[in-house]
Known about the structure:
The protein is built from 3 helices and no strands. By secondary structure, it is an all-alpha fold. The chain folds into 2 domains: 2-86; 105-148, no CATH class. It is rod-shaped, with a radius of gyration of 52 Å. The relative contact order is 0.03.
Amino acid sequence: MRTLIILAIGVFLLAAGVIAGLIALSVASAEQARATQAAASAAAVASTSQALATVAIVLLVIAVLALLVLAGYLYLRLRRAEDVQRGRWAPGPNALWRRAGEEPDFSQALQGLVTLEILRALRDLRHPPPTIQEQNALALFEDDWWRR
């Protein structure tokens, strides 16, 4: 009987050990699940924080580029306004006859033509143009018609 009691106590202790082991295993499993859940929550928070930081950096870069474009536009607009005020020469073939932003003044062109004619007349006074006979003679000698 004594062996039976010892055997029953052994079986009871063995069952109690198995139950205690199972309880410890379930407690460890529950703790591991809580730790996994906390890690997943931390990863989600980190992922959200990283996404927000990326969006903030992209928006900051776009804002800086927009400010640079705006500054360039304002600089060019100011430069054009200064050009008109300063009176820069107009572009194109008649650039030296008028200033940028002004309407063409044809009296200046006429004045230039009159000046050209005066200079041409003064040149003719110093070196008179050849007569028609001299021009014909020069044309004959330049052509070398007698050597053909």
